[in-house]
Input
Amino acid sequence: MKQTILFSFLIICLTTVGYTGAFYNDAESSNDNIFATGEVDFTLDAGDFSPESTAINLKIGDTTEKEVTVVPGESNPFKYVATSTNFTGDDDFCSALEIVNPAEAELTDFDPLNFVVSIDSPFENKVCNFDLEFTGSQTRHDLNLGEGYSDIETTGNTISSWGLRLNKVYYDVARNRGVDGHNEWIEVYNQTDKPLSLTGWQICDNNTCQTLPSSDPISPEGFAVITPMSSTWDYWHVPSEIVKISLDISPILLNLENDADMLMLKRPDGVVIDQMNWGEPNNSWPNINSEVWDPGVPDVVSGGALARQPNGYDTNQASDWVALMPPTVDLLYPDEDGYDVWFWDMDYPISWVATNPNGPDSDLKISLSYIKDLNQDGVISVGDAEYPIANDLTNADSPYTWFVPSGFIGYIWIKVVVTSPENPMLNAVTISGDLWDPVPIFAISNDTETIRQAIRNFKDINPAITDRLSSIDANNPEKRVKLLEELNSATSSDAIVVEEVVEEVVEEVVEPVESEDVSVIEDTPVVEEETPVEEPQVVEEEVVPTKEEVIEEAEVVEEVEVIEEPAPEDSAPVETESEPTNE
Output
C-alpha cells in the first residue's frame, strides 16, 4: 500500500517540471613566475698590460697594450662604448697619457679590444690610476645609449713612469762584512736618462720609515747605496760613481729581518714608487699593504743579496728578484800576508785567481791599483792615495806585468777588485802585504852609465835635491832620515846629486830591506874609479852647479853590500809631501 502511494506522488511531481540545467567548475595555479620583456647584463674579460714592464716603467717612445673582451652572457642584443675615467694620482702625468680607445664609438660585436697607452713627454717617478668604463644598452626600439635596459662594468688600470727602483738588498750580513743591523744595505737604481735625487725620500721596512738625508743625485743608470751606519763602507769596494747614503741611526730603527721582511721606497709626499718583500709576510706588520707578495721572494743565504736581474727590471712580481753571491778573489803574488821589495822602473808580475758563484769565472772583471803610503805611517790609512794600474781585466790576464813607476820612496800595496757582471756592488777586494818601493839605483848593475841614467831619471822626476840638501852633513847618521825626506819631498828646481847622497840612502834604506829575502844581483863587481871628484860644496849665495855639470862629474859608484840583518818592523817609510808628476 505504501509503495503505491509513493509512486503516484513521483508521477505527479515529474509532470510539473519544464526543463533541467547542469553546471561544471575547475581551478589551476602556477607559482613563482616572472614575466620580463628583456635584459642587458655583460661581464669583462681583461688581461694585464703587455709588456707589463712598460706599463710600470713608461718613458717616451714606449707603448703598452691591454686587451679587454666584452662577454655578453644571456643578454638581449645590446650596443656599448668604453671611456677612460676616474683618474687619480699625478694629474700632470695622467693628462699627458695618450690612450687609444677602440670602443670610443658604439659597437655591437664582441671581438677583443686593444687599448694602447703611450706618452710623448718626459716624466719620472709618476703614477696614474684610471678606469676603463664600459656602458651597454639594448638595441631594440633604437633607444639612446644608457636608456632602457643597460649595464655598466669597469676595469682598473695603473700606469707608472720610469724612475728610481729598489734594486738590491743585503740583509743577512756575512761575518767578514760587518754585523746585522749596522752593515745591511739597500741599493737604489736610476732607470732614467737624467740625474735623480733621493733627498727627502723615505725607505721603509715592515715596521718603520726613515727619511733619507741630503745626498748627491744618482747619475743616469746609476746607483745609490743606503746603509744604517757609515762603517759599512769599510767592508765593501764602493765605486766612486755610486752615491753613498749613511743614515747613521740606531740600528733598531731600520733593522731588516733575515727570514721575512719588506721594503718600500716612498717619494717625499708619501707615494709608494716601489716595494718588495721576502719570505712569508705577516699580517701584523704595521706597513703591510695589498701589494705585498704572498709568498715573497725566497730568502737568501747569509752573505748573499737579493737583486733585480737585470738592473731595474720591474714587473711588480716576486720573480723579478734573484739570489746572488759576491765573487771571491785570492792574490797569489804579491801575497796578502807577504813582504817584498819592488824597485822603481822594473817589471813585476801580479797574479790572482777569482771565482764567480753566479756563473762563468770568465764573466768577472778585475781591476788593479796600488796604494801609496803618503802619510808614511806604514799602514793603509786616511791620507794615503790610490792610483789605477789596469781595468777590465779577466782571469786570463793573470799574471799581469806591471812596470813600477818611479818618484816615491815608501810602502805601496797592490789592490785587486773583482766585480760580478750583474752589478758593481757584487764585488770582492784583496790587498797585498807591504811592498817597499825604493829608488831605482838600488837595483842597478855594475855599469856606471846605468847608475848615471838612474840618477838622471830621479832628478827629472823629482828636482827636489836642492841647496837645502847640500847643507845636510851626509856623513852624520843622525841626519839620514832627514836626507831621505829631502830626496823625496823638496821642490827646488836646482838639483845636486853626489855619490855620498847615493851612499847614505843605500846604507839607510837598502841594506836593511834587502836582508828580508829580497832578490838582489849577486857578485856585483866594484866599479873602478875613473875620475875622482870632490863633493860640490854649496855655500850660501854661491852659484849652485847645474844638473848637467853634476851628472858629468858623478861617475864614481862604490859596491853595495847586503847586510844579513832583518829590517826593523817599526821603521816607518819616508814621508812625502807632494805627488810625483809622472804618475
